[in-house]
Specification:
Distance between the termini: 177 Å
Oligomer: single chain
Strand content: 25-35%
Shape: elongated
Helix content: 40-55%
Order of helices and strands: HEEEEEEEEEEEEEEEEEEEEHHHHHHH
């Protein structure tokens, strides 16, 4: 008998009391909740909340909606939009709302509060996030030429993007079903895998195709993967003098060589011992060579300056500018000598053949050119030594040797020119004989003077 009573009490609890307790635990609840919502500006979005009292018979007393804890709508018999939301917010289902034409200011946390008369209050919230397109979508590859049977991996990169984008791949502008991740792996490359590959980053804001693509081709005949090489044009650094193979550097080197060779040739003609038919012919050759030298130097200096300005390298610009100025000065002197001074025919003796009828402008042109050649040669040598950082760059070593040779040669030419000018001041053998004859025959001198008068 002591055991019958507990069993009876347990039966009554299970049959009559327990179902009521279980029913009360689930009678008031949200039948549907809302995850975070992503939307573009201008979209109409929905928060489809739905609440139910179950079988308890509880009645919904009121429903209120908040954005970032600020009331935006309420339902207490009738639906009343909050301030600033008139015409944009409407009721959806039991407890949901629809918000039309969203803007960036609508982003935030939205909350639904359902109060049951004589029962609990249910609260659920969801975030509205304004979507953003992915940015800077690019593609990279660990290979471009792939052997048959080899593997290759392509990677799609992007920045930003709300929500986080997913990726899919295109081959020759057709979608590939191979992968939807940001990495495409071809483990066994075949001939049919050749083509142009690009990727697309996608989210609710839209699809953005990569700004570049990768061309995969079969590697022939190599069996190893060839690393992909991206051609990049470096931005010239104004403070970097460049390399020994820069076009401007090569033109300056040519200018130093041309100046040295032609000045040496001109001075050699001055002191040469070969016989000329007339002094006029020798002088004309010297003048023509001087003018040609000046013109070629102006052209080389101008070309070097143009290239230096184009690549924006200050050292080349400075040297080329000074060289162009000096070469123009030398050209002007050469033209003045050519146009302003004529060579008279002479019947001077053999000992006088080296005293040409050349004006001072000729010697000024040669002197300026020696200064030009010396300056450029020294500059080229210094720059070649500076650029030869490893000590094994053959082009820089050769440029250094040529620059030093031209500089030393121009120094020799400078002394040579001084010697020629000094010799030019000495009286020739013919003049000495004429002076001696005039001193020995005063009558003749008087006659000549009378004739001249």
């Amino acid at each position: 008998m002591n055991t019958v009573l507990p069993h009876c009490l347990l039966t009554v609890f299970v049959i009559y009391l327990l179902p009521g307790q279980l029913e009360q635990a689930v009678e008031a609840q949200f039948l549907s909740t809302v995850p975070d919502v992503y939307a573009n500006v201008g979209d109409d979005i929905e928060f489809p909340w739905n609440a139910s009292s179950g079988t308890s018979g509880l009645i919904i007393g009121s429903i209120t909606w908040y954005k970032d804890s600020v009331l935006i709508a309420q339902l207490a018999g009738i639906f009343i939009p909050g301030a600033g939301y008139g015409g944009r917010i409407t009721q959806l289902g039991t407890a949901g709302i629809t918000l039309s034409s969203v803007s960036e200011s609508d982003a935030g946390t939205y909350e639904c509060s359902v109060a049951f008369s004589g029962g609990p209050t249910l609260v659920n919230s969801s975030d509205l996030i304004i979507a953003e397109n992915p940015q800077n979508v690019t593609i990279s590859s660990n290979a471009a030429n792939v052997p048959i049977g080899g593997s290759v991996e392509l990677t799609c990169h992007s920045t930003g993007g709300i929500p986080i984008p997913t990726y899919f791949w295109l081959k020759d502008n057709s979608i590939i079903d191979r992968t939807v991740s940001n990495t495409l792996v071809i483990s066994s490359f075949q001939k049919g895998d050749e083509g142009t590959y690009s990727c697309v980053a996608s989210n609710v804001a839209g699809n953005v195709t990569s700004s570049n693509s990768v061309q995969l081709t079969e590697a022939v005949p190599s069996t190893a993967m060839t690393p992909a090489v991206t051609s990049i044009t470096p931005t010239p650094d104004p403070d970097d003098p460049g390399r020994c193979d820069e076009p401007a550097f090569i033109l300056l080197l040519c200018l130093a060589v041309v100046s040295f060779v032609m000045v040496t040739a001109i001075l050699a003609l001055h002191v040469g011992t070969c016989k000329w038919s007339t002094m006029e012919k020798k002088v004309r050759i010297i003048r023509a060579l001087t003018l040609s030298k000046a013109i070629s130097e102006v052209a080389l200096a101008a070309a070097a300056l143009g290239i230096a300005i184009d690549i924006k390298q200050t050292e080349f610009i400075a040297i080329s500018s000074m060289a162009l100025c000096l070469s123009i000065i030398a050209l002007v002197f050469a033209i003045l000598d050519m146009c302003g001074c004529t060579c008279k025919k002479t019947t001077e003796t053999e000992g006088d053949r080296d005293k040409e009828k050349l004006s001072i402008f000729h010697y000024l042109s040669v002197g300026v050119d020696i200064l030009l050649g010396l300056m450029v040669a020294v500059a080229v040598a210094v720059m070649a030594a500076t650029l030869n950082k490893t000590g094994t760059d053959a082009s820089c070593v050769a440029a250094l040797a040529i620059g030093i040779t031209c500089a030393v040669g121009q120094l020799v030419n400078a002394f040579w020119l001084i010697y020629i000018l000094w010799k030019r001041r000495e009286p020739s053998q013919g003049e000495q004989k004429k002076t001696s004859g005039q001193q020995g025959a005063p009558g003749l001198e008087m006659t000549a003077g009378t004739a001249d008068s």
